[in-house]
Amino acid sequence: MIAKQFSLGLATLVALLQSFTVTAEPGLVRTANATLQVGLDAANGSLRELLQPADGFNQIADNPTALGLWQITVRDGDSVRELSAEQSPPPVVEQPTGERPGLRLVWDRVPAGPRSLRVEVFVRLEPQETALSRWELSVTKPSNLRVEEIRFPRVPSLRPRPDEVLAVPRQLGVMARNPRVLTQPRPGSGARLNWRSPHGTDLSFPCLAFYQQDGAGFYAACDDSLGYLKTFSVWGDGQDQMHFEIVHEPEQAAVGQTYFCLPFTVVLGAFRGDWTTAAEIYRESPTAKVFAKQGERRLQLAPDWLAGTGLWLWNRGRSSQVLDPAIALRKRVKAPVSVLWHWWHNCPYDAGFPEYLPPREGAAPFSAALAAARRHDVHAILYMNQRLWGTTTQSWLDEGAEAFSVRGKDGNVAIESYNTYMKAPCAPMCIGTSFWREKYAGIAEEVLTRLKPDGIYMDQVGVLATCYDPRHGHIVGPGRYWTDGFAMLAADIRDRTSARGPVALGGEYGGEPWIGQFDLTLGLCISADRMGASPAWEPIPFFQAVYHPSTIVFGNMAGLAHPPYDEKWPADKAPATQLTLLDRKFARQFYLEHARTFVWGMQPMLANFVPTQLTERPEELDYVARLVRVRMQTLKYLLHGVWLRPPPLDVPQQEMDVVTVGTYTPLRASKRMFPVALAGAWRAPNGDVAIALASSSQEPLALTLPVDANAYGLPGRCPVYRTDERGRHRLGEWDRKNPLLRVELPPRGLLVLELSASESGQQKQTGPTRFRGPG
């Protein structure tokens, strides 16, 4: 007994000493505490060790590829040079002062032609309860030397592990189960995977996780509450090695500065778990807390109908094609319906923007239809692309819009084209110009104050551009003026419309910098299969796991019909299939998309609905109605809750017919494998916990759910409730001594199991002492 106590004390002492010392061996310098050890090559600073002492698993492979810690691209006049740590003289390594362990590496004379640079890297370890390290880089240079790109930190040769997974918050989130194949598509050839942040179509927040399920994981993130542009990159070298780096382009290439410091801190770490673990780590970061608070404040100011929406309808056209179906749907689901309304405007879609006014059916009938719909608990937000101007419109010429459009490095307007029926070119407008912000805000003011919809949907929010026009008054090239422009535009619209009360501003794509500016965001990637995404990437609710209580995410593309065709497009190109029913073999894909929406805590949506579908597709629409009924009873979790790791479901995977089809995309059918049921887990603000379950199977499923009492923060015992379309029913009491929940999920079942921690010890148990469920 004495020997055991001495051993534990010695281990604690060693860990304590490590936390304040830097150890070295030939060719390697280290800093460590009880939870993380970082080892760097003394010759070039290359990362050689990133490991947790508890298990000794090094995230870096043995004999890693020689990859210096940084690489900097500089321009001196017409001369461009790539400077790198591995090609520079060895750094001076110092131990910084302070309570937390760390290292300072200084490359004092990095040759850059006739001149030289000083590069300094500082790494320090986070407190011992986290296995995280924070990395900073600064450059001292001649003031007129341009720093065009910094790649830092560069992490070589991520160690292979069984059943590798790579997860990134691309839009809502995706994961690849065999990422090494993606970075080496053919033997001997490498490929690079890049994700920009912040950017709507890429990273909604700067984080990455590479792991083995419930095993050792590599974590990378940035602490950047100002939203500087950066690129996360994973690449293969053709030798089955996979590397990671973050790429930054300094604003204005740091010209005029003799000292440049990377404007954000990079966080590297190790963990054991999965992408939910990574989300939990990021959720506690200083940056996430800043943006979460901004989002929560925005939600408090949003119109009340928004949180009370039971179902969204995504229809297009005149009010008879949009509002009338919404009223019919409202009667069916028995909950408030909100409308995302496309093609209400006078101009052809994806061609005539921003000539939205007047509405197609006239201002007076349009406003009357909106008011009538509101009396039926139907609210509407109107589509208004906040980025594009059609270059063939008269207003493009009359208002000289070209001068305020985005220009590339070559000085040309960055033309984009989406409309395959009209081949109409559009120009992205520079939100860094007051001209475009005032133009858009002026149209929004007229729409919101005269027509009086409940809000507007600002399409392509988050599709950031880099503009090189020096006349615009913003930083030339990469810069934060795009996200700053969002904030100014949103504030201006709200100021202009404040007299009529709160309006809803919706946008496309979730993203940290605009959480506090917009009231809700559209998450279409939940329908990744319908949108034609690669099956190599599976959608996951990574964004929801971090920011669910801070913003409302809604939508999918799940519908039962072919897409419609705009009446303003050429009549001779209209497909005969518009709004005709899809083959019923795709119904399971419809169920899957709605199941994801439900368990991931999103407001559901139905696309391309016409009332005849109520009788033509009753089973599918019954699924939607039941989903809405269950969700509206459990908003404390599915609207306000914090994501928890759901219990694993032991359910089969089945082959499913999948349709890829869109407004401009011809139908393409394929088959893919999906699990027949999904789960999500949520903690309510009062500490109660719920497990949401959704099945797409035609057969009942008998499920056994292991509940992690410690992770969920549950007491020894607590009541269990089941909420389904019939209401909420008490089932018994859960006991952590027997932590399994057994439940029968009926065919295509939708339900929520609640573990009421807030009631524990407050009620006397009158039923069974252990929960078994109806099965």
Number of strands: 42
Mean pLDDT over all positions: 93
Largest sheet: 11 strands, antiparallel
* Rg over alpha carbons: 28 Å
The shape, in one word, is globular
What is the percentage of strand-forming residues?
25-35%
Which descriptors would you attach to this protein?
single chain; 775 residues; alpha+beta; 11-stranded antiparallel sheet; 8-stranded parallel sheet; 16 helices; 21% helix; globular; disordered N terminus
Summarize the structure.
The chain is α+β, with helices and mostly antiparallel strands. Helix content is 21%, strand content 32%.
Give a description of the structure.
The protein is an alpha+beta fold and 775 residues long. Helix content is 21%, strand content 32%. The strands form eight sheets. Strands 7, 8, 9, 10, 12, 13, 15, 16, 19, 20 and 30 form an eleven-stranded antiparallel sheet that branches. An eight-stranded parallel sheet has the order 31-29-28-27-23-22-21-32. The chain has a six-stranded antiparallel sheet with strand order 6-5-11-18-17-14. The longest helix is centred in the middle third of the chain and has 18 residues, at 434-451. The protein is globular. The model is unreliable at 1-24 and 762-775 (pLDDT under 50).
